[in-house]
Amino acid sequence: MDHPVNHFENDLVAALSSNVKHISPKYFYDVQGSVLFDQICDLPEYYPTRTEMSILSENSKAIAQHIGPQAELIELGAGSLTKVRVLLRQLELPTAFLPMDISGDYLRAAARDLQKEFPKFAVSPIVADYTHDWTLPDPLPETRRRIAFFPGSTIGNFLPAEVDTFFANCRKYLPGGALLLGVDLLKSPQIIHQAYNDAQGVTAAFNLNLLNRANQELNTNFDFSQYAHWAFYNAPQQRIEMHLVSLKRQEIELNNQLFVFEEGETLHTENSYKYSVDKVQKIAAKQGLKAGPVWTDPNHWFGLLWFDIPDFETTKGEKNESYLE
Ligand SMILES: C[S@@+](CC[C@H](N)C(=O)[O-])C[C@H]1O[C@@H](n2cnc3c(N)ncnc32)[C@H](O)[C@@H]1O
User: Fold this and answer.
1) Ligand 1 center to residue 131 CA distance, Å?
2) Centroid of ligand 1 to alpha carbon of 273 (angstroms)
3) Is ligand 1 within 6 A of the CB of residue 103?
4) Does residue 35 form part of some domain?
5) Domain containing 141 — which CATH number?
6) Banded model confidence at residue 312, pLDDT cuts 50, 70, 90
7) What is the Å distance from ligand 1's center to 227 Cα?
8) Residue 77: CB within 6 Å of ligand 1?
9) In the chain, how many domains are there?
10) How confident is the model over 12-18, as a mean pLDDT?
11) What are the DSSP E strand ranges found in the chain?
12) Ligand 1 contact, 47 CB (< 6 A)
């Protein structure tokens, strides 16, 4: 098992021990989870992927100009590396591409394919959990700026305090750089609801795969037929919640302990917060990030938001320790 930071067992024990059972969505992503997520991206109901792709395609030249020449691109939660190709084709002399993802085998295979397509710069995958410290190599001498690309509205999976930490990490690890952030924007709850309740049941399979993964890696005894996918838009919280609902009273064995699910009790597996542009910019501003252009689609369903990250000099009034000119 190639998981770099395998806290799955501890976190699942903590979740199952709790009255309100909740586990991080990062555990969806073994190879099977990554494959299922890619299938979700192709679903007619799942508007975020095709909307973000259309924004990228329409604006790739303007975004590349903002990124500038000799940039190093770091993609967080990189997945299949489909979206970044649109950007990489437009960049002027990029120095390196560092895709970071927790789903190690899947990332390495995607990075190998990308390197063949883009032989002029190094593609160096980083198998890591970005909710922990970011372990980035030193930038190459010719690198002028480091840019983080965080698409897919994966930021929506963070709780509010985790969003603050994320922006603080951008400032800590990418001084003088920039962030290009994909955000799923507020819209009709009906459209959002359908995106997580597709007719083919792929999102249900993705959700249930968490139990499959636990059975394979932690030797639990989850019976998938006795759990149901449940996703709904929590309007006051402005988020989709995904749960697995226990269809009967059942006991789960894990780590020589027994955990009980009562009938109707749920394991809360994911939040996906939806935002206004203004709200994201205000949260980022609290950590010192400076909002730049926003690229969006005609319906304003999705936004690609640019942020400049202050360098050390601006941040602390100290000598500029960054590698920027
Ligand atoms: C919603 S998918 C987005 C994939 C792709 N970036 C896109 O836009 O289609 C989230 C991606 O982030 C990765 N991921 C989730 N939690 C992570 C974490 N804590 N650290 C690193 N990668 C993570 C998953 O493996 C998955 O590839």
Assistant:
1) 11
2) 15
3) yes
4) no
5) 3.40.50.150
6) confident
7) 24
8) yes
9) 1
10) 97
11) 21-22, 71-76, 96-101, 122-123, 126-127, 145-150, 178-184, 227-234, 239-246, 250-254, 257-261, 266-273, 290-296, 302-308
12) no
